From TrEMBL:
Signal peptide start and end residues: 1-26
A Pfam family assignment: Amidohydro_3
InterPro entries referenced in this protein's UniProt entry, alphabetically: Amidohydro_3, Metal-dep_hydrolase_composite, Metal_Hydrolase, Metallo-dep_Hydrolase
Single GO term (MF): hydrolase activity, acting on carbon-nitrogen (but not peptide) bonds
Domain Amidohydrolase positions: 426-482
Highest taxon of source: Eukaryota
Keywords: Signal
PANTHER family tied to this protein: ALPHA-D-RIBOSE 1-METHYLPHOSPHONATE 5-TRIPHOSPHATE DIPHOSPHATASE
Protein name: Carbohydrate esterase family 9 protein
Length: 944
């Protein structure tokens, strides 16, 4: 038998063996797989778009100026042709003005120049206004306000300016608290302001995301509708990544609630370090996405709390930083260089003018410096601030913006900040640029606001005079081409008169201002604290080239003794008294007769002004308790120590007088020679005044100490009380209005022991021996006080010399006030503040009358006061504005009386006033400055 396998069997065995061999070897061979391309996620395009967006640079589209219709245009708005105007352009060349026409259509400036070719017949609903050569400017831009967050009238229910939730809050958005019903909006428009940056408070190191809004009411009525170019995080717009965002941060003293200066900077550094880590993670993420490495990406790295700071580091945010002192600016500059982000503006920046080289080292370029003109010494950081700072910074090539920090300065008075900066040396076109093109550029919106050029937004102001003339007032205001001023006619509102008495051509010209070069150099040399001493001359002083002269009459009151037309006279002063007014020969200008000559160059010798209403003479720095008197006891709210033996704890301001304060000396050098001070501070946000404010004192603002001759002019002047509704923000225990009135009734009725100061002085007030000055704003409370006055007078047969101070609503019962022989002391710069003041008359261009004008017309004796010690030096400017807004009702002589004779009579000051010599004009003219003070009381002339 053949046992050998067949060929088929051998083949089968071979195949089985081969299969087994391959199977056994497979565990020891390397394994190979097909390479597959990772599949992109469904949101890949969204990721790529996001990565592209974080690299995009913000700014206007190249096609922006070619637009035909503004994104803010409201259907139904008329086209407007302003013809025959003096137009401030402001774009590129701030000094460029032209005489011509301006055409506004669909919310845009469509044409500028000579537009006689414009076919008016083809333009539907065209409003034509002949400017008659008057000035037209861009709408003013306020770089620093709290409008809408600190809404007028001030109430706790509309106060969203600061958060208490921590030092670093970049995730908060100001728009979420913007109140569209703030009365401050319309007041600001009445000052020519059309756009503002709304900032949170400086309590926090980063208070939140700022916004830029236009102040007009929109048909939509929403907060968002007010925002200019809202960025993507507000409205989700497709082009949002190209729009600027805005942030406020603060350093230095103001955010002290969360620590000291090192704490503040560490808080900022740690926040930016976190943001920098996020930036690095996002960049790494996007690199992978661009390389198509999708499978290891995960979620896009972001943190909603820090996304704003991430955008800061990416250069997408216009950062506003509030840093005042040089130490704070230095810390900010180092922070910007450490984290490499630019700063658009430094706010307040009181010492920036002392360190311009430091400011120039800010990473990414020199920021604009936003300043007050003269509002300094409110805290230690601002103690070295100077009126010359704008000019010094401009000379160093640094852009300067004037701002309001509303309500610190009401935004309505932004123009006055520029006027004062010009007065102290800032060139005129730079002064106008400081409230138009400079702030617009600082917030990244100069392509549409802050200048007039074709394609810009139709935000325009037509003025009654050159904008830098004192008292300049808007005649018309347009925002987005929509007319805002004058207000639409209404049955209960007369059309206001604007510009009365300004027909002379001089009002159209830039005002001439004094030369301050010597003072400016001295301020720099002394690092903001130049000596404010004077040369005292007790011998004969002859003033040459004098136009107007006042002197004392038999009653010690001042009256005009010479008013020349073109003739100039000489005035000889001996021992502080005028002994001759006449020509040079008649007044003995022989060298042997005169110790000194002073050329007034057409100036005037006029009454010195008196100030009242501020803590001038009682403190050096408002927010530094160690530099003032301290809070007096409040008999209505706290127990009175037995050692005082006086249930009313009535004090005298004379016992707290401070001489030689910088506020007092700058006031003296500005022509304010007398100050009357009471212990009660003006009521303000979070700080209500005592009901019993004690006895006031009158002092010389130029004296160096209380024992100097003539330093204390009158020891006891008037008795002061304050009757107000509770302050919305005060943490202090407050008493009801009815309890305040009840207490006042008891005190005036003589129920208090007259052996005490409280009993003695209230008895004298009830008998009319001393004036009773009541700080009050509300008309209803004033009516109650008038009834109380009649009640006490009928009971005792006396005549109370009652005076209302503040009295914002006094016009409502002007006739009753006059019938009761009550005087009124009004604020020099009236604004809407608390609820008690909300019905004040704002004056042109909103109302035809001011409260002052109504009272003046009714025959009420009126004086004017100033609330802030550091602002007393500006009384002459505010007095000029008050006179001019009366449209000719109040003459210069009558205006003098408001801060001299009238005020002295109302307060019971009986001493002879000083005289002030102004060189280059009178106190109502921007061309003049104080040259000397002539004091009969002290028997000398102080020469500046």
């Amino acid at each position: 038998m053949d046992l050998s396998p067949s060929p088929r069997s051998r083949l089968l065995v071979f195949l089985v063996s081969l299969f087994a061999l391959i199977y056994n070897l497979s565990d020891h061979l390397p394994k190979y797989h097909a390479v597959e391309t990772p599949r992109a996620p469904v949101d890949a395009q969204k990721i790529q778009a996001k990565c592209l967006a974080i690299k995009s640079a913000p700014g206007a589209s190249p096609l922006f100026l070619k637009r035909e219709v503004s994104d803010r245009f409201e259907v139904g708005t008329n086209s407007t042709l302003i013809s025959n105007a003096t137009i401030l352009m402001g774009r590129g060349n701030e000094t460029h003005t032209l005489h011509g026409d301006l055409y506004l259509d669909k919310g845009i400036v469509k044409a500028i120049g000579s537009l006689s070719h414009l076919n008016r017949a083809n333009v539907l609903n065209l409003s034509v206004i002949n400017a008659n050569g008057a000035w037209v400017t861009p709408g003013l831009v306020d770089l620093h306000t709290h409008l809408g967050l600190m809404s007028a009238p001030f109430t706790a229910g509309a106060f969203d300016v600061s958060s208490t939730k921590g030092p670093i809050l970049p995730h908060l958005r100001n728009i979420d608290g913007l109140n569209t019903h703030d009365d401050g909006f319309q007041l600001a428009i009445a000052g020519g302001v059309t756009s503002v940056q709304v900032l949170s408070g400086s309590v926090n190191n980063i208070g939140g995301q700022a916004i830029v809004v236009k102040l007009r009411q929109t048909s939509e009525g929403s907060s968002l509708a007010m925002v200019v170019e809202p960025p993507y995080n507000l409205n989700g717009s497709a082009d949002g990544s190209t729009r600027w965002r805005h942030l406020q941060q603060a350093c230095g003293e103001t955010p002290s609630e969360y620590g000291n200066r090192p704490d503040a900077i560490w808080a900022l550094r740690s926040a930016y370090a976190e943001a920098r880590n996020i930036v690095a993670a996002q960049d790494a993420y996007c690199q992978k996405a661009e390389a198509g490495l999708w499978d290891s990406l995960g979620a896009f790295p972001e943190n909603l709390r820090f996304e704003m700071l991430v955008d800061v580091l990416r250069g997408k945010v216009k950062v506003t930083s509030q840093c005042q002192g040089a130490v704070d600016i230095d810390a900010l500059v180092r922070l910007t260089n450490e984290f490499e982000f630019p700063v658009a503006s430094i706010q307040h920046a009181s010492e920036a003018w002392l360190v311009p080289g430091l400011v120039n080292r800010t990473w990414g370029g020199t920021p604009a410096i936003a300043l007050f003109a003269t509002n300094y010494r409110y805290d230690l950081n601002s103690y070295r601030g100077s009126e010359f700072a704008p000019r010094v910074l401009a000379d160093a090539g640094i852009s300067v913006a004037m701002k309001s920090a509303h309500p610190v300065v009401n935004s309505r008075y932004l123009l006055q900040e520029a006027q004062r900066a010009h007065y102290y040396g800032l060139p005129p076109y730079l002064a106008l640029a400081s409230i138009t093109s400079v702030p617009a550029a600082a917030i990244g919106l100069d392509h549409r606001i802050g200048s007039l050029h074709e394609g810009a937004d139709a935000d325009v102001v037509l003025w009654d005079s050159n904008p830098l003339q004192l008292g300049a007032t808007p005649v018309h205001v347009w925002i987005d081409g929509k007319l805002q001023i004058p207000l639409p006619p209404r049955s209960d509102r007369e059309g206001p008169i604007v510009g009365g008495g300004k027909e002379d051509k001089k009002w159209a010209r830039f005002p001439s201002v004094p030369d301050w070069e010597k003072e400016r150099k001295q301020a720099i040399e002394w690092e903001g604290l130049p000596p404010l001493t004077t040369r005292k001359q007790s011998g004969n002083v002859v003033f040459l080239n004098v136009r107007n002269v006042w002197s004392g009459n038999a009653d010690g009151k001042l009256q005009k003794v010479h008013r020349s037309g073109s003739d100039l006279v000489a005035v000889t002063v001996r021992g502080g008294r005028i002994v001759c007014v006449g020509d040079k020969i008649a007044c003995g200008t022989d060298e042997l007769d005169a110790n000194e000559y002073v050329d007034l160059d057409g100036g005037s010798v006029v009454p010195g002004m008196m100030t009242f209403g501020s803590p001038l003479g009682l403190e050096e720095i408002r927010s530094e308790p160690s530099t003032g008197n301290g809070p007096p006891f409040d008999a209505f709210a706290e127990p009175i120590p037995a050692i005082l033996n006086d249930p009313g704890a009535l004090g005298s301001a004379m016992d707290a007088l401070m001489f030689g304060t910088r506020n007092a000396l700058t006031a003296y050098r500005s022509g304010v020679t007398l100050g009357t001070a009471a212990l009660g501070k003006p009521a303000s946000l979070g700080s209500s005044t005592n009901v019993i404010a004690g006895m006031s004192v009158t002092f010389s603002t130029g004296s160096s100490h209380a024992m100097e001759r003539g330093a204390i002019v009158q020891k006891f002047v008037a008795l002061h009380v304050a009757i107000h509704r509770p302050d919305a923000f005060s943490k202090k225990s407050q008493v009801s209005v009815s309890s305040q009135i009840a207490g006042l009734r008891r005190l005036l009725s003589g129920w208090e022991n007259q052996e005490t100061d409280t009993g003695k002085w209230f008895k004298r007030a009830a008998e009319g021996v001393v004036p009773l000055v009541i700080d009050v704003g509300n008309a209803d409370i004033m009516a109650t006080l008038l009834i109380l006055k009649a009640e006490i007078e009928n009971r005792f047969g006396s005549r109370i010399r009652m005076v209302f101070s503040g009295a914002a609503e006094a016009h409502i019962l002007a006739q009753e006030i006059r019938a009761a022989s009550v005087g009124v002391i009004l604020d020099l710069r009236p604004v809407v503040g608390g609820w008690d003041d909300r019905r004040t008359l704002p004056g042109p261009p909103l109302t035809n009358d001011t409260t002052l004008a109504v009272l003046f017309r009714e025959g009420v004796k009126v004086g004017l006061k100033c609330r802030e010690a550091q602002d007393v030096r500006n009384m002459r400017f505010d007095l000029t504005r008050a006179m001019l807004t009366s449209n000719g009702l109040i003459s210069k002589d009558e205006a003098y009386a408001l801060v001299s004779n009238n005020l002295e009579d109302l307060l019971g000051v009986t001493m002879e006033s000083d005289l002030v010599a102004y060189a280059g004009g009178d106190l109502f003219e921007a061309s003049s400055k104080t040259a000397a003070v002539i004091s009969a009381q002290r028997g000398q002339v102080d020469i500046f």
